[in-house]
Amino acid sequence: MSLHSQFSLLAQYNQLMNQRQYEAASLLSHQDLNKDCGAFFQSVLGTLNHLMVGDLVWLKRFSTHPSSSQALEYFSSLEKPKSLHTLIFDDFEQLREERNHIDALIINWVDGLSETDLQTSLQYNDMAGNPFHKSFGSLIHHLFLHQVHHRGQVTTLLSQFGVDFGETDILEILPESM
Question: Considering the entire predicted model, what is its pTM?
Answer without folding.
Answer: 0.94
